[in-house]
Amino acid sequence: MIGEPFVHLPTIDSTNLYATKLIDSKMAVSGMAIQADVQTAGKGQRGKQWESLPGENILLSLILDTHPLGAEKTFLLSMAMALGCHDFLGVFLPEGLTIKWPNDLYWRDRKAGGMLIENKLQGQHWRWAVVGIGLNINQTQFPGLEKKAVSLQQITGKKFDHLAMGKILLKHLSLRWEALVSGRAEAILADYNAQLYAKNTPKDLWIKGEKTACQPQFVDQKGQLWVKTQNGERALDFVDVAWEAPKL
Fold first, then answer.
1. Which residues belong to CATH 2.30.30 in the chain?
2. What is the pTM assigned to this prediction?
3. Whose CA is closest to 180, among 188, 191, 172?
């Protein structure tokens, strides 16, 4: 079951790193969740550090045995987990919530959370996934990111128990995981695209460092973002795209 066993750590360098060490030492259990109050070296996408004030937010990693899925479903797992986070936040936010490709949670144009999935192979086979999730719950100050980040408390005016919220999140992740392993890939893909950030909206993307006017259309099962440009439709890989101008 997703979320069992549940491990609470007051302080850790990274819940993803902790989970990976459990896998490497053959102590991992599929469905195991590790939630921390503080991460001293939290991981984000593209090697960035995930910043969070102590005890304010959901900092959680989930260990999943992926052998039932097959390597072709790596991005479908990402979609399913992003949808689980979206479902969870949607309980508290009636509107304005989207999934920014590949797997950030956005409220309007501000980031409410993100994910980092790290995969472990056994030979040539996809054996484990560590799903690292950070969701802004009670934090109300984001130095230098005031216009880019947002929390549930800022939106709703309410304060939440971050540990209790983590366990509620796991219930939503569990439903999406069950849908994935039972073969409902098309429904996951459709649901993901229904929540896609900036869908059919003009956006400037930096493709291999070059600013390009685009309209995001949809994401396919491989995880490619299809966009309209002045030269027609094209598929983009995450490694080639940035939503913001690269820092010089």
1. 203-242
2. 0.94
3. 188
